[in-house]
Design goal:
Layout: E1 2-12, E2 28-32, H1 38-49, H2 62-69, E3 74-81, E4 84-93, E5 98-106, H3 115-129, E6 134-140, H4 147-154, E7 157-167
Parallel strand pairs: 5-6
Antiparallel strand pairs: 1-6, 1-7, 2-3, 3-4, 4-5
């Protein structure tokens, strides 16, 4: 199905641009997944992105996942709430001394509890700590309606917008076929 797609590119140019948010959840922790685990990374990717049509990595083999995770420029940070993975942030250091937030998101049951602002704050702080001169990402109209607002609230500024059309299946793949979570609303940003 042909679907219009808007992609927004956002950046932060100084650590002082960060407007941090901390969740007042006593059992919330953010920790680096320091041991490459294709199984765990694929779980995060499908659990967070399945309802948002994240499909690029679905055909990857175990070896492709392992090669991706073994890169020294990649860090994966995971939010846990009471021991349960709640979301993740994948950071990739770029040759131009920027750090890209490659993937970021929450499992559906954790959206709207403040976990996203907290995790994004931790991810941005880590990007600056590893020597970024610029932190950037892109998001799109297929993402959660909360995503763009979270990025903007943390201090990111839009520097580019692209309009395209993509071919999508009638329904998103979900974390597995017939997953119980409802189809998410489409984001809108003006």
């Amino acid at each position: 199905m042909k679907t219009p797609l808007t992609t927004w590119y956002l950046e932060m140019l100084s650590p002082s641009d960060l407007r941090p948010k901390r969740a007042e959840l006593p059992n919330l922790t953010v920790q680096q997944a320091a041991i490459p685990s294709p199984e765990f990374s694929r779980f995060l990717y499908t659990s967070v992105g399945g309802h948002w049509n994240w499909c690029d990595r679905l055909p990857w083999t175990y070896d492709q996942w392992l090669a991706h995770l073994n890169r020294p420029e990649l860090e994966t940070w995971v939010a846990y709430l009471s021991g349960t993975p709640a979301g993740y942030c994948e950071l990739i250091s770029q040759p131009d001394r920027s750090v890209k937030i490659e993937y970021f998101g929450l499992l559906p049951q954790f959206i709207g509890q403040g976990v996203g602002g907290h995790l994004l704050t931790c991810g941005i702080e880590r990007a600056w700590a590893i020597g970024a001169e610029r932190v950037w990402l892109h998001t799109c109209s297929l993402d959660s309606q909360h995503a763009y607002k979270n990025y903007e609230a943390r201090g990111f500024s839009r520097y580019k917008t692209e309009e395209t059309t993509v071919d999508l299946p009638a329904t998103s793949p979900g974390p597995w076929p017939q997953a119980a979570a409802p189809q998410p609303p489409v984001a809108s940003v003006t």
